[in-house]
Design brief:
By secondary structure, the protein is α+β, with helices and mostly antiparallel strands. Helices cover 32% and strands 23% of the residues.
């Protein structure tokens, strides 16, 4: 009898243990499902959650205060523009005009950006200097006459080399633009990040590239590389038949003949890049392009090619990455404010994006520009 009671008690204990394990498994599965759901939501709502732009916006106390109080302004310093992704975001939804239903609950994003091209010029130029003033000064070698030669004899005066220098002073310039958006956009940080990165920051970088390539240096414009570059020497072209490839190679030669730092890149219009890639030999075979090849960045004569609409079709620029530099006074900064014009009564916010920088061209002779349809002199 006692054995029956002991067995019954043991069975009840085992049953109780099994029930407890099942309950804990159910609880753990519920937690796992919740974590998985949150992970999917984060991945869906923010395809680039770790980029520095989203991080800066999400951690900004000023932005949080602005949203909570509904007034004032917030300043967010974004740092190096090159570290901010500029790729297209896959977003769907309405617009940012403040129309009812713009920011829809439980939706992914609300902006479909226009296609934007990637920029490369800033990436290729030598960078590393910062300034805290309104002017940048540097000393540049102006002339160098090499007098090195064998000594005429023991006790004879040795030859003299002469050189001269000039001091260059350039003012820091401000590049900026702003736009208005609905107040509701501030409630969704990932959407705001995508909006700013694809429009304001892209616009800033595009204008910077235009200024670096073709700025005329008048007023508050930067002194662009084309305006300071040496004209292509037509005498380097031989014969009566030549292609754009011949001209670009001769441009590299011109820099080398000037005893400058060898050119390290080309800037070309997408139109000219297409024309070059479509060049064929006498048998109809493509010389540069490969219709069946994989997508790769174009390089010509071993130098990377920057494809940019900031340069006029038919014009080229060959340059040295080490011979010019963008010196930043203020990194890319985004400011948000309700206190602009009639924002308060329109439930709107003004978003300003700006930077302060200057292009320092240390060796103008290391840059050559010309046209791709040049004829020999």
């Amino acid at each position: 009898m006692d054995h029956k009671i002991e067995i019954q008690t043991a069975l009840e204990e085992i049953k109780s243990s099994i029930t407890g394990v099942a309950e804990r498994q159910t609880q753990m599965q519920t937690q796992v499902d919740a974590i998985d759901l949150q992970g999917r939501q984060r991945h869906t709502n923010d395809p680039n959650a770790e980029d520095m732009l989203v991080k800066a916006l999400g951690e900004s106390d000023e932005l949080k205060r602005l949203v909570e109080m509904g007034k004032g302004c917030a300043i967010i310093r974004l740092g190096d523009l090159n570290a901010i992704p500029m790729q297209r975001k896959i977003l769907t939804g309405g617009s940012m005009t403040g129309t009812a239903g713009v920011v829809m609950p439980e939706r992914v994003g609300s902006i479909v950006p226009l296609a934007s091209r990637r920029l490369f010029l800033r990436d290729l130029l030598f960078r590393g200097s910062k300034t805290t003033g309104n002017q940048v000064y540097f000393v540049k070698e102006q002339t160098f006459v090499n007098g090195a030669s064998p000594q005429a004899g023991e006790g004879a005066v040795k030859s003299e080399t002469t050189m001269s220098f000039t001091t260059v002073s350039l003012p820091i310039q401000t590049l900026a633009h702003h736009l208005n958006a609905s107040k509701q956009v501030l409630e969704d940080v990932p959407t705001l990040a995508a909006y700013i990165s694809t429009r304001l920051l892209y616009g800033l970088r595009y204008r910077e590239e235009v200024q670096c390539i073709s700025g005329d240096g008048t007023g508050n414009n930067l002194s662009g590389l084309i305006g300071q570059a040496s004209p292509f020497n037509l005498a380097l072209l031989t014969g009566v038949s030549h292609t754009p490839l011949d001209i670009l190679r001769r441009a590299l030669e011109q820099v080398e003949l000037a005893d400058e730092v060898p050119a390290g890149f080309f800037c070309l219009s997408p139109v000219d890049i297409a024309n070059i890639e479509l060049l064929k030999d006498t048998l109809g075979r493509y010389i540069v392009g490969d219709p069946g090849g994989t997508a790769e960045a174009l390089s010509l004569w071993g130098k990377p090619v920057i494809s940019t609409t900031a340069i006029t079709p038919g014009t080229f620029l060959a340059g040295s990455s080490e011979s010019a530099e963008l010196v930043d006074r203020l990194d890319a900064t985004v400011e948000l404010s309700y206190e602009d014009r009639d924002n308060f009564i329109r439930n709107a916010v003004t978003i300003l994006c700006e930077e302060r920088t200057v292009l320092c061209t240390y060796r103008p002779g290391a840059f050559v520009t010309g046209t791709l349809n040049s004829s020999p002199a």
